[in-house]
Amino acid sequence: MPDPAFEAELAEVRASRARLVDAADGLRRGFERALHDGAQQRLASVVLALGLVSRTLDSATSDAAGLVEEASAELGRALAELRELARDLYPVLLTDAGLGPALASLADRCPVPAVVSAVPAGRLADAAERTCYFVVFEALRNVAVHSSATRAEVVVRELGGQVSVEVSDDGVGGADPNGPGLRVLADRVAAHGGRLRVASERGAGTRVTAELPCA
Amino acid sequence: MVPRVLIVDDHAAFRSFARRVLVADGLVVVGESADGAAAIAAAPELRPDVVLLDVQLPDMDGFAVAEALAAQDEAPAVVLVSSRSRADYGSLVDASRAVGFIAKAALSGDLVRRLLAGDA
């Protein structure tokens, strides 16, 4: 016979687990926004300022011209690194446009050719979109780093209040579901009432699948 | 033709540097707005050829501002700018009414001219 106190405690633990993930994602989103609104804006202005300075210097007679050029190039690299860091923290495209465009952008940037074969047309609940996004983000990162695959495919389907997301590749397989990346991913999916499965027999590619409620 | 530009961005420092870069490159800056509503109100009065439009404004996003500007009589061309990269906005840029996108650090009068001419 179920113990009501135990059931209540379990429900609270489940809810608090979801809240922890939501809070962490909120922080990531906030950091991205702060980088964009702050340092990235200011550094872009500095790049323009250095460009204006270099117009006033004659490179034939001034050492400063070369220094300004070097500083601009270095600043450009710093800006590119900041942009990448910000994007990995939280993709503005997911907030502004939803899962389809955000996953298309992830697939475009994957060094292994990747396609998004199916994705729900409409917006899903915020938590479901985030979870699906980070499943694909982590799975494609594994594809790029570990799989030696020649191609990868992403499929997201919504059916009856559930969403399933699957990332498969034709690589070497052998992924460890208890490795740090996939373990944390499984926890993230479970926190929103879902389940992550990893099929990765050696020599037979890898298939990462998550199913979770999306209502 | 010397393009007449309206700069729309909530960061005053960026507006100031952008103005100086564009003027140094021979363009005419007809005005500055700090948000979307101000830009939509200013455009019919200032009659810019091109609106340099930050994607993320305090009151509305740049894509919505671009829509509103496109609906005006003698609508100006819109060039989106951001400190994010074009890839960060993915398909949203292609789907928008803008003629192009410029990362803020890459802003130049030449690039604005080329986008207006449709060859960048």
Ends of chain B: how far apart? 18 Å
| Total number of beta strands of chain B | 5
Distance between the termini of chain A: 30 Å
Helix content of chain B: 40-55%
Structural class of chain A: alpha+beta
The radius of gyration of chain B is 13 Å
* CA gyration radius of chain A, whole angstroms: 22 Å
Overview of this protein structure:
Chain A is of the alpha+beta class. Helices cover 60% and strands 16% of the residues of chain A. Chain A is built from 6 helices and 5 strands. A 5-stranded mixed β-sheet of chain A has the order 1-2-3-5-4, covered by helices on one side. Chain B has 120 residues and is α/β, with parallel strands linked by helices. Helix content of chain B is 42%, strand content 22%. In chain B, helix 2 (36-46) runs parallel beside helix 3. The longest helix of chain B has 13 residues, at 12-24. Chains A and B meet through helix 1, helix 2, helix 3 and helix 4 of A and helix 1 and helix 4 of B.
Protein traits:
heterodimer; A: about 220 residues; alpha+beta; about 60% helix; about 15% strand; elongated; B: alpha/beta; 5-stranded parallel β-sheet; 6 helices; about 20% strand; globular
Q: Could you give a short description of this structure?
A:
The complex is a heterodimer of chains A (215) and B (120). Chain A is an alpha+beta fold and 215 residues long.
Blueprint (SSEs and pairs):
The complex is a heterodimer of chains A (215) and B (120).
Chain A: H1 4-55, H2 63-89, H3 92-97, H4 99-109, E1 114-118, H5 126-147, E2 152-159, E3 162-169, H6 180-191, E4 195-199, E5 206-213
Parallel strand pairs in A: 1-2
Antiparallel strand pairs in A: 2-3, 3-5, 4-5
Helix pairs in contact in A: 1-2, 4-5, 5-6
Chain B: E1 4-8, H1 12-24, E2 28-33, H2 36-46, E3 50-54, H3 62-70, E4 77-82, H4 86-89, H5 91-95, E5 100-103, H6 109-117
Parallel strand pairs in B: 1-2, 1-3, 3-4, 4-5
Helix pairs in contact in B: 2-3
